[in-house]
């Protein structure tokens, strides 16, 4: 039973690490500057 718990903990840590890596990659790849959005609600300007 202990070996199954160890595999479960290692698997959970691997999933967390992959999720964190994806999050960091997406945050780093966002363009910096100003985002201008025009849609049916009007014009939106956001600073990144």
UniProtKB/TrEMBL annotation:
It comes from the Bacteria. Keywords: Membrane, Transmembrane, Transmembrane helix. The chain crosses the membrane at residues 6-25. This is Uncharacterized protein. It comes from Chelativorans salis.
